[in-house]
Amino acid sequence: MFKILVVEDNAELRRLFCKVLDREGYTPLEAKDGIDALDVLDNEFVDLIICDIMMPRMDGIELVRELRDARYTLPVLMITAKETFADKQQSFNAGVDDYMVKPVDVNEMMLRVKALLRRAKIVNERKLTFGETVLEYDTFTLYTGKGAECLPQKEFMLLYKLASNPNHIYTRQQIMDDIWGMTSETDTHTVDVHINRIRDKLRDNEDIEIVTVRGLGYKAVKK
Question: b/e per residue, 173-182, with b = 16+ CB within 10 A?
Fold first, then answer.
């Protein structure tokens, strides 16, 4: 069960977010500002933070900077009334992973939460092994019986995502959201281009292959 910390000084909004998270099967935790959030993190393992910017005592930007300085890598979804490019730039520079502007569509919020958790899982597992084929996340390296090859970042992350859940079908849009980010304006055709490059590298590989599921997307299959 994923634990998600909601840091929001508006009690009504905080309760709404927690209710939606609980309904979706997550365990919500509450904090009314950055100081309270740090207290929660001292006592609980948290998988993701949903955080407002404007809060008393310690605001959202200060909280994220504190977390990144302390080597916390958990994903942070910032939710705020501030919507200028400068506000977004400040948030991302502090270490925020995604950003939503109030008023918030809770259905879209849940899509972003799920995408961030999937992305975090990709990062945290670090290494996958299929027979003689090994994917090493820390170095973006593909090891096969023929040797080692360092892949471009997006190619590696795409392959790692598919291989981390064999036989699961991912749509192009799901891949785009996880690898390129939900705010990316890149065309989904880019996914097809990267898949073809990965297939070239897996040609004659006896452990794993990427299969096209017509009308749906792609999946990795163990041979």
Answer: ebbbbbbbbb
CB 59 within 8 A of CB 34: yes
Give the model confidence (pLDDT) of 139-190 as tens digits.
Answer: 999 999 889 999 999 999 999 989 988 888 999 988 888 788 767 777 888 9
Q: How far apart are CA 74 and CA 80, in angstroms?
A: 19
C-alpha–C-alpha distance, residues 60 and 97, integer Å: 13
Q: Among 36, 27, 31, which Cα is nearest to 14's?
A: 31
Residues 46/70, Cβ–Cβ less than 8 Å: no
Q: What is the pLDDT of residues 1-52, one digit of tens each?
A: 789 999 999 999 999 999 999 999 999 999 999 999 999 998 888 999 999 9
Contacts by residues 89-98 (CB-CB < 8 Å, ≥ 24 positions apart): 90/61, 91/53, 91/60, 91/61, 91/64, 94/61, 94/64, 94/65, 94/68, 95/64, 95/65, 95/67, 95/68, 96/64, 98/181, 98/182, 98/183
Q: Provide the 8-state DSSP code for 59.
A: -
Radius of gyration of the chain (CA): 19
